[in-house]
Design a protein that fits this description.
This protein is 76% helix and 0% strand. The radius of gyration is 19 Å and the shape is elongated.
Length: 71
């Protein structure tokens, strides 16, 4: 029974990680994290924009570069 419980727990953890990944991709949270990582690498001494600042920058970019959107 102990092995089966461990297997069920492992499966539940896997599904929880999968759902968390999906929700982060769906809501754009992962995009912000990737942006922060890239910003820190390219501009190590500059402060990282807040989530709100990031959204404003992204919105301005989309408005000024409509050709960069797929639709």
């Amino acid at each position: 029974m102990n092995g089966r419980h461990g297997s069920l727990l492992s499966t539940a953890r896997h599904w929880a990680r999968t759902v968390r990944w999906y929700l982060r991709e769906l809501t754009g949270e992962a995009d912000y994290d990737r942006y922060c990582d890239r910003h820190r690498r390219r501009h190590p001494h500059a402060p990282v924009p807040s989530r709100r600042e990031y959204e404003v920058l992204r919105t301005h970019h989309r408005e000024n570069h409509p050709q960069s959107r797929c639709c």
